[in-house]
Write a structure and sequence with these properties.
The chain has strands spanning about 1-10, 20-25, 35, 45-50, 55, 65-70, 80, 85, 90-95, 100-105. By secondary structure, the protein is an all-beta fold.
């Protein structure tokens, strides 16, 4: 939140002075837009997380944190890997760590399209 001091003429109060008003102005923030990528991957292929989606921020604000969550049930489904370690639940990474995150697709037998 940006704080701005405003000075404006005071015609209501007697005298010819200025009134100082301190106001906290909340800048209208437009959230970033995340777009999913359309990929075809082979089982066992490691896909860099940065290839799974793209993010744009119309305000030009830098993206500093990425949140990942695996919402697929069961251990035999695909998973995320962060810095060489399989992640079984949600995790956060900084923008500088995004290159350390990858995803492995589900094996063909576990894919809903193949059941």
């Amino acid at each position: 939140m940006e704080e701005t001091a405003l000075s404006m003429p005071n015609s209501v109060v007697s005298g010819a002075g200025l009134v100082q008003v301190d106001a906290a102005i909340a800048a209208a923030h437009v959230p970033p837009v995340v777009s999913a990528s359309h990929l075809t991957a082979a089982y066992g292929q490691s896909i860099a997380a940065s290839h799974l989606f793209s993010v744009t921020d119309s305000d030009g604000s830098p993206l500093v944190i990425y949140a990942f969550a695996d919402k697929t049930p069961g251990a035999s489904n695909g998973h995320f890997v962060f810095n060489g370690v399989t992640e079984n639940s949600g995790f956060l990474v900084s923008a500088s760590q995004l290159s350390e995150v990858s995803s492995s697709p589900v094996p063909p037998a576990a894919s809903p399209a193949c059941r």
